[in-house]
């Protein structure tokens, strides 16, 4: 098992994009607003590409910033994956 802190990129597909969009929508945040919440770390176009599954992978750093801006974490996108996160 690889510690999450050592992961550089995470595989991405349309199903994960749909979950990201669902989390964002449930918070009432637009794609533009989310991009602003990341303080320039993730562009609106990247968010769009992630949500429609146009990208094959995303960096752990960008994903953590996105999810942190949504008040969520990686387990919300990958509920069936067993992860060992620092306590």
Structure at a glance:
The protein has helices at residues 14-26, 31-37, 44-51, 60-69; strands at residues 9-11, 57-59. The chain has 87 residues and is mainly α.
Any overview of this molecule?
The protein has a single domain, classed as lambda repressor-like DNA-binding domains (434 Repressor (Amino-terminal Domain)). It has 87 residues and is mainly alpha-helical. It is globular. The chain is built from four helices and two strands; from the N terminus they run E-H-H-H-E-H.
Strand content: 5-15%
- The N- to C-terminal Cα distance equals 17 Å
Name the CATH class.
Answer: Mainly Alpha
What's the helix-strand series?
A: EHHHEH
> What's the domain count?
1
| Mean pLDDT reading | 91
* Percentage of residues in helical conformation: 40-55%
What is the fold-level CATH name, i.e. the topology? 434 Repressor (Amino-terminal Domain)
Major beta sheet, specifics?
A: 2 strands, antiparallel
């Amino acid at each position: 098992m690889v510690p999450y802190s050592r992961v550089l990129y995470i595989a991405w597909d349309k199903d994960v994009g749909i979950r990201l969009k669902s989390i964002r929508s449930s918070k009432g945040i637009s794609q533009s607003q989310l991009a602003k919440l990341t303080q320039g770390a993730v562009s609106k176009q990247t968010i769009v590409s992630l949500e429609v599954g146009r990208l094959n992978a995303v960096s752990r750093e960008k994903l953590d910033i996105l999810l942190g801006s949504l008040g969520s974490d990686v387990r919300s996108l990958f509920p069936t994956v067993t992860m060992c996160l620092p306590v």
